[in-house]
Write a structure and sequence with these properties.
43% of the residues lie in helices and 9% in strands. It is mostly helical.
């Protein structure tokens, strides 16, 4: 009996310890602000110039750690996307080196082609994890679709009717700009107010003046070269990479809706005529 009482008392004290642990404050991430995106809404479309700037930011700041293994170089020529010419896209692809085999089966290196995908900066997952404190950097192709946040009421209710599908873009932009003004260069984890738990393994990557945009008018840059602008542009590029055929799909959707509307009207007219014929008879 004494043993039973001791066991019950022990379990009770253990449950109290777990309860007190659960009650300890946890750093909750801030909710990202809603941003204005050109591709948001029913009539939204990608800004070609912004996508080109976003590609430049990705190449200069992101690709050393993150790949985009589901995006092909030829997609850069899409009219709804960056709209590069075939020659321009080919030059971008040739800036990457790929391992391949020759006709004799020997390993060789070659320049990229339009049919290649944006490569990973690592040979394999093991190398990626080893060089990044045991955690492989995420592939960025679908990052704006796989990340997001709870909008809460009443916004989540209105999202069904607006519609609003840019939660992932808001989150990625917020994450890139959510660092304090200065962070330790060699810190394994740094604070980010939008990241769950508050600590993230990726240091601050975007700083004012880091990138000189290629797009300019008469040699004068027309876009601000700030961390916020870099984040906005690269987020838009990643949103396009995750859904490059958004515009054409929406246009097809309108055609289908128009066809169904006409069909519905014709059926209603046919029904009215049929009822009138029955009334005459």
């Amino acid at each position: 009996m004494k043993n039973l009482i001791a066991i019950i008392l022990f379990k009770f004290l253990l449950s109290l310890s777990f309860y007190s642990y659960a009650e300890e404050p946890i750093i909750k991430p801030e909710k990202p602000d809603i941003q204005q995106w050109s591709y948001s809404g029913i009539d939204g479309k990608y800004d070609k110039e912004q996508l080109r700037r976003g590609l430049q930011v990705y190449q200069e700041k992101c690709q050393s750690c993150h790949g985009m293994k589901y995006l092909e170089f030829y997609q850069l020529t899409d009219s709804d996307g960056p709209s590069f010419t075939s020659e321009e896209a080919k030059l971008i692809a040739e800036g990457y080196v790929f391992t391949d085999t020759d006709d004799m089966g020997q390993p060789i290196e070659r320049q990229g082609t339009l049919t290649d995908y944006f490569p990973s900066p690592y040979l394999n997952s093991q190398e990626a994890s080893y060089l990044n404190n045991g955690k492989e950097p995420v592939d960025l192709t679908y990052i704006t679709k796989s990340r997001g946040y709870e909008r809460g009421l009443p916004q989540s209710f209105f999202d069904v009717f607006i519609p609003y599908n840019e939660h992932g873009s808001d989150y990625v932009y917020a994450l890139l700009t959510g660092y304090p003004e200065s962070t330790g260069e060699n810190d394994m984890y740094v604070f980010n107010r939008y990241y769950p738990g508050g600590l993230i393994a990726m240091n601050k990557q975007l700083h004012d003046g880091d990138i000189v945009y290629k797009e300019n008018v008469n040699g004068i840059n027309v876009m601000p070269e700030t961390a916020e602008q870099y984040a906005k542009d690269v987020t838009a590029f990643l949103a396009w990479a995750a859904d490059p055929y958004m515009k054409s799909r929406a246009e097809k959707g309108w055609v289908v809706l128009g066809y169904l509307s006409v069909l519905l009207i014709l059926l209603l007219i046919l029904k009215i005529i049929k009822n009138k014929l029955k009334a005459i008879q």
